[in-house]
């Protein structure tokens, strides 16, 4: 209330104060804000990609490998137990797998071995034997040569992830339907060019061996999570052991 000139009272109307509005960003601040949100989005997408590459691909690959391994085990059981394959020759070129690799120093599990080293093969969580550029010599052939194998070190099953744990003197065992092939590690090459195919030769160069023999070679990418170089492990056959009815593993695996 306030007095007027005629002695009456009246209201004084004051303009209501407007509520504080949002401060408008300048051009530079808007650009910075946009790129900040963009970086957050990209970071989330990269995080999801890492999860997919290093975890989910392992899950999918392990499932595929287990399924294929079951087929191999079932076919062996049929051939041994009077099924459709009874009495017939064992196929070592099966698309489902030719046997199982056991490397206690690297992994406690078995690794299915298939033909070929393409990503299509290895992405199923298996190890593959080389057919190109140097053809592997299968131990089942009885011939001297090099049983050369490859597998992923990260993602898609990562079967050779722990290859760096293998040391000289460690056993490597290859299991087939009726024979255990027991190898002993004699050489390790932590890094070499991905184009160095001489390490896969029948007498693998740089391994220290100069005479023909029965060798095994494990290869994978290095450093971990890259494919810049190759990590190599060499072993030599020390003995074979027939598989009994219980499939009792050799002493190296007990």
Automatic annotation (TrEMBL):
Q: CDD domains, per this entry? A: Sortase_E (cd05830)
| Region described as Disordered | 1-21
The reply on keyword Membrane is yes
The residue ranges crossing the membrane are 28-55
NCBIfam families, per the entry: class_E_sortase, sortase_fam
What keywords would UniProt list here? Hydrolase, Membrane, Transmembrane, Transmembrane helix
Q: Determine if Transmembrane helix is one of this entry's keywords.
A: yes
Q: What name goes with this protein?
A: Class E sortase
